[in-house]
């Protein structure tokens, strides 16, 4: 349960069901009273109103919808837009669907797939994952992802273990000595997208930031052949020294400690810096960091990229993009964000084949 409020003599409750919102109604005695119909697969909540007044308000967002405030008549069930931002482009031609795949151990993993309705599949695909620290990857609007989709690409968001999509047990299943299940879930998602024809075998980019950057580095080391390109952002790449810098000691609860034998062995087994697979053909990699990041210090990315460049892992480029006078991401000026996204998408488009479509006008 994410939110609840007594409105119009009904209890309105927002639940997270398969990583998406479901709004349910209950009578004062606790008996069910139906659901609140939503505009699509998304995230909803933030109820506002008076207990006795049938007029209620809530917010909704999704991959094809910036955060919009809806007016809801509790008595009649009517839902109308009360306030919505203007967005560039025609969001009505974007489709959001949910799929499921099976991970290595049989666990059912949700995947959101976002594309233009007229985009033929398979199409170059951006696979994004974060899931760590119990944080859920519920649907939200991203202008950057919309730009990729508008050019004929597909965005896939994996709700893998380590997040909070199914409560504490889902987080615990991807924590400390069980962190490998997170990588198994991402690998299963990539295999599903290729097998089901969402993306061509040579058209998949994997992206993640912070914990997600760690995830990208670990997964690419384990299965480099699955990806045409990789975009690890501000990632925790040296898992044997993460606790020695800035706030890294606070992450021991999530990762375990490299200072005890069991923790060291677990971390060493997937640390992106330490597990680069010599002799395998790697995707093109563009890692990003910032020179004043005091959360995940840039030395993680510097060491990782240096190790990639020194390794015999095929001819594609392994580059680092360093943002100056910037930190971990929050509060970055819009112009810096636009420049970074433009570089990332151009790089990914070049190596997934979307770039060829852009150059010929065929998207």
Automatic annotation (TrEMBL):
Listed EC numbers: 3.4.21.26
Reaction equations catalysed: Hydrolysis of Pro-|-Xaa >> Ala-|-Xaa in oligopeptides
Pfam families according to UniProt: Peptidase_S9, Peptidase_S9_N
Domain Peptidase S9 prolyl oligopeptidase catalytic, first and last residues per copy: 147-353
Domain Peptidase S9A N-terminal: 5-84
SUPFAM superfamilies: alpha/beta-Hydrolases, Peptidase/esterase 'gauge' domain
Keywords: Hydrolase, Protease, Serine protease
Protein name: prolyl oligopeptidase
Species this protein is from: Methylorubrum aminovorans
